[in-house]
Amino acid sequence: MELKEIRTDGIASLDYLDASDGWYWGSDFTYGDLYEAEELWQDHHTITKNRLIFVNAEDGFVHEPLKPKAGTYFGKPLYMNHRFYILLADFEGGKIRILETDENILEISPVASIERSEIEDCYNLMLQKEPLMLTRSQSDIFEIIWPVHRTYKVGNTEAFCFAKDDLLYFSRWFEDPGYREEVVIRKAEDGSIAEVIEGSLRMNEDGQIWILK
């Protein structure tokens, strides 16, 4: 069996970019956790930045679209409609930035810039789809920060999965006494429940979404 060598310069773990054509991403130190990254920055830790790479499974091509600089940390990226979306926290400049590039990674373009002061904290701060959104969640609160600002009260075992056609899809679990799951579909306008479906939600790497009953 042939072993393929991928030169990542120290990044030891890669995750598949959902719905992409064989692309993986990797980061070092905080691995996309911007809450942890901000703590490092505030504590004047020696780790003042992290790196983000994309790896193509077919040819092993490794690309690092942006070089890191002190005070900036990459969050978990997202793939949608043949484009990469990059979440970058600039704690030095007080900004949370969303950037995009195509599959050839030829040019980086800005999508949005949000003042860090407008966000309560970076706990579970991440990009979601579709459409492209910046969200955060904590306990029984789910918040869309961009492109619109909305806050929803949800169950404390609900986890956001995706948005589609002005609906928000959550997975909710119970132990009563056995373990089971439900799919909770909420209206994006006000967070009210439109439908509840028994079963667990599975989001496949090829973009298909299944409900397992």
Q: How many beta-strand elements?
A: 19
Q: pLDDT under 50 segments (min length 5)?
A: none
Q: Characterize the biggest β-sheet.
A: 5 strands, antiparallel
Proportion of residues in β-strands: over 45%
Shape: globular
Helical residues, percent: under 10%
**Helix and strand sequence:** EEHEEEEEEEEEEEEEEEEE
Radius of gyration: 18 Å
User: What's the overall average pLDDT, rounded?
Assistant: 93
Q: Look at the helices and sheets and give the structural class.
A: mainly beta
N→C terminal distance: 39 Å
**Tally of helical runs:** 1
Notes on the structure:
- By secondary structure, the chain is mainly β.
- Helices cover 4% and strands 47% of the residues.
- It has one helix at residues 34-42; strands spanning 15-16, 23-27, 52-56, 62-63, 72-74, 78-80, 83-90, 95-102, 109-115, 126-128, 133-138, 141-146, 150-153, 158-164, 167-175, 179-187, 193-198, 200-203, 209-212.
- The strands form 5 sheets. Strands 5, 6, 7, 8 and 9 form a 5-stranded antiparallel beta sheet that branches.
- A hairpin with a 5-residue loop joins strand 16 (179-187) and strand 17 (193-198).
- It is globular and about 45 Å long.
- The termini are far apart.
